[in-house]
């Protein structure tokens, strides 16, 4: 497994060792020891999620102000543009975003740490997302930032207006949002 830092150093791209042969392929989609060796991190994952979305569906930008979730995200069918936004109060990269293409072909995973808002848009006919999370879903603590907040300025690869849930259509600007307050030593 190879880890590569993005423009926000805590957000990492993970590339598992891929074994293709005449039968098809095999790879370890998660190996705690390899993840720790590549990243220096040892998250405890308590929830696995699977979502399917059609082309042009945009989900996000979501985070939990308490019970923050670190997420290890990948696409096993299709292709999507996956985004992490730093919403950690006091962070030197507060309000900045990174975006990475995740697809069934590149087998990339994105590590979205606690204190980051997460979202994606599907660029293929449909996409299946699988992701692991370090804490449980807690809707009372969930917040949603507008995908098109001009102060964040995410350059989404969209060909028209995205399909949004009612919750995501009502997302607020980061300037008006409750942000994540990290403990002093976690920044
Ligand atoms: C996120 C989540 C939703 N649900 C339920 C609530 C609701 O009835 C239904 C759909 O929920 P949502 O519309 O919030 O699903 P969705 O918009 O896919 O939410 C997800 O978006 C991406 C970007 C993330 O980063 C995830 O952590 C999560 O917030 O599933 C759970 O039971 N457990 C969960 O962990």
Automatic annotation (TrEMBL):
InterPro entries: RmlC-like, RmlC-like_jellyroll, RmlC_Cupin_sf
Catalysed reactions, semicolon-separated: dTDP-4-dehydro-6-deoxy-alpha-D-glucose = dTDP-4-dehydro-beta-L-rhamnose
Ranges in coiled-coil conformation: none
Entry keyword set: Isomerase
Family annotation (Pfam families): dTDP_sugar_isom (PF00908)
Record-listed E.C. numbers: 5.1.3.13
Function according to Swiss-Prot or TrEMBL: Catalyzes the epimerization of the C3' and C5'positions of dTDP-6-deoxy-D-xylo-4-hexulose, forming dTDP-6-deoxy-L-lyxo-4-hexulose.
The family this protein is said to belong to: Belongs to the dTDP-4-dehydrorhamnose 3,5-epimerase family.
The protein's name: dTDP-4-dehydrorhamnose 3,5-epimerase
Gene: rfbC
């Amino acid at each position: 497994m190879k880890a590569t830092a993005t423009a926000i150093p805590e957000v990492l791209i993970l590339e598992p060792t891929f074994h293709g042969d005449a039968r098809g392929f095999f790879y370890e989609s998660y190996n705690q020891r390899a993840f720790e060796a590549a990243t220096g991190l040892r998250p405890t994952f308590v929830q696995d999620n699977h979502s399917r979305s059609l082309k042009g569906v945009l989900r996000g930008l979501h985070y939990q102000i308490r019970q923050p979730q670190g997420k290890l995200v990948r696409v096993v069918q299709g292709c999507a543009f996956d985004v992490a936004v730093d919403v950690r109060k006091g962070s030197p990269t507060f309000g900045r975003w990174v975006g990475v293409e995740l697809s069934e072909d590149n087998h990339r995973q994105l590590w979205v740490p606690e204190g980051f808002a997460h979202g994606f848009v599907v660029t293929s006919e449909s996409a299946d997302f699988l992701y692991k999370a370090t804490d449980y879903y807690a809707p009372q603590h969930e917040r949603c930032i507008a995908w098109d907040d001009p102060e964040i300025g995410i350059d989404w690869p969209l060909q028209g207006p995205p399909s949004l849930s009612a919750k995501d259509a009502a997302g607020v600007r980061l300037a008006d949002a409750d942000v994540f307050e990290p403990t002093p030593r976690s920044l």
